[in-house]
Amino acid sequence: MSGRCSVKSAVLRGVEAIPVDVEIAVTQGFPGFNVVGMVDAAVQEARERVKVALKAAGFHMPGDRVLVNLAPSSIRKTGSGFDLPIAVGLLVATGQIDSSILHDTLFVGELSLDGFVRPVAGSLAYALCARDAGLALCCSIEADDFMPVDGLRERGVECLHDLRIMRFYEIGNGITMMPREEPDYQEVSGNEVAKRALQIAAAGSHGLLMMGPPGSGKTMLASRLPTILPPLNDDEILRVALIHSIAGLGTASICAGRRPFRAPHHSATGPGLIGGGSPVRPGEISLAHLGVLFLDELAEFSKSVLQQMRQPLEQGYVSISRADGNVVFPSRFMLVAASNPCPCGYFGDPDHACTCSAKQVNDYQNRIGGPLMDRIDLHIDVRRVAPSDVLNPEGGLSSAKLREGVMAGREYASWRVSVEGVSTTTQDVISSCHLTDEDERFFERMALSNHMSGRAIVRTLTVARTIADIAQNKQVRKADLCEALGFRIRDGIGG
Fold it and tell me: What is the DSSP letter of 95?
């Protein structure tokens, strides 16, 4: 039995799916089943899965020579998503199902040995690819990372047997989210200065480092940061959900408008934090896109891994080079970090003696690296709360109250930028502050006396501008500069 056909499919590359033509040729000759077109091991394994799945679903596998070509051959093909298009192509080429099934449809999915169609990572990326190409998407009905896409025709398949009778379903069952109780800053006793710093950081998307002894509440403070951030808008939901879909993660919380909060362990590798691997996958900094990346025990991270974050922090994206080209992932995140001040954790704690030498303290803090520290806008000390405050909390600033300031600051900044223009260059940042001559001289003296770098000067001014935005003031006052400087300059860290 001979036959030929071509099936539309796609392969993930970065944050998009690239169209691929799955060409099937069943010809007479010595029996064989070959897949070509720069494919990886997972695609090669599709041959065995397809053979068994077709038989389990009541079809027969042709005994002739089968050649599968994935075009274009210049793009590396990875993953198990080619199982379904290969199976569909074989069935059409051998006349076991009607060829009309191929009309204007993109197929992607993995096959189980009993003929059922399993979901693959990146369903949302495949959906966008199909919509942009004017095709329907045919994939598993169990795609938990799928979200509705305007203009897309869905053709979910549960089992290969459905193809015989052309039976299709809606795609995706994973966007329903159970309500959950959000933590609140009111539960964190004391640390009002730290809460104020977090409010400023949230209003201006500034980086923040908290340094203090164990048990001072650094992790509690950081974990509640998403509760004072504004929800994602529709465009942001799509962009963030796309990255999580490609990583094989659920998108339910993203679809609900919650900004991502990623907290990788300090043992994270470079590819795990920045992105990479084979095939290339997004790292934690990309999974935190438009959200928060929390690095607890910052000094315990590999120094080489931390230094790889410098470029993404500045540019808002990470570019990963491979032999077959570059892959770009967005990574515009808000960095929040926490660290002990020394190996024992009690340097500067008035209630607990530190057992570390001056050299040990200095070496431990230097593990973070000056260039990375220079890119973190706010540096604060977090002290342990007195037992009386824990046992008898007075109810400090709540998330709702802090969120009011964040929203007011962002709305005012948006209005100001619409009037004055976007502040991108150093001169733009300085001009947006509208400093008086006296305040400018004061700030210059402080920068000189604290040996602040050019980057530190600009970042301190942007923090002062955010403080003024929260107060809805057009002019940055001396008090705003002093508060920003107080969050930038601290003993043992420097500017």
Answer: T
Class of domain 3-164: alpha beta
Q: How far apart are CA 119 and CA 282, in angstroms?
A: 19
CATH number corresponding to 185-404: 3.40.50.300
> Domain limits of the chain?
3-164, 185-404, 421-495
Tokens standing for residue 37: 């077109």
Q: Strands, E, within 144-247: which ranges?
A: 208-211
> What is the CATH number assigned to the segment(s) 421-495?
1.10.8
CA distance 220 to 197: 14
* 0.70 surpassed by pTM: yes
Calpha distance 180→253 (Å, rounded): 11
Find where tokens 């051998």 sit. 94
CA distance 295 to 273: 10
pLDDT (tens digit per residue) in 128-174? 999 999 999 999 998 777 888 889 999 999 999 999 988 898 887 54
Backbone angles phi, psi at 397, to 5 degrees: -60, 135
Q: Where are the alpha helices (DSSP H) in 310-436?
A: 310-315, 358-366, 370-373, 387-391, 399-420, 426-433
Distance (Å, whole) CA 192 – CA 188: 9
Exposure string (b/e) for 229-256, b if CB count within 10 Å is 16 or more?
Answer: beebeeebbbbbbbbbbbbebebbbbbe
135, HSE (Cβ side, Cα atoms, 13 Å): 22
pLDDT score of 159: 95
Instruction: Tokens for 2, please give them.
Output: 């001979």
CA distances from 227 to 24, 223, 249, 291, 311 (A): 52, 9, 21, 11, 28
Q: How many CB atoms lie within 10 A of CB 311?
A: 14
Give the separation between CA 298 and CA 431, rounded to whole angstroms.
Answer: 34
Q: What residues does 321 pair with on adjacent strands?
A: 326
C-beta atoms surrounding 160 within 10 Å: 27
H or E, element range at 48: helix 46-56
Q: What are the tens digits of pLDDT across the range 74-88?
A: 889 998 999 999 999
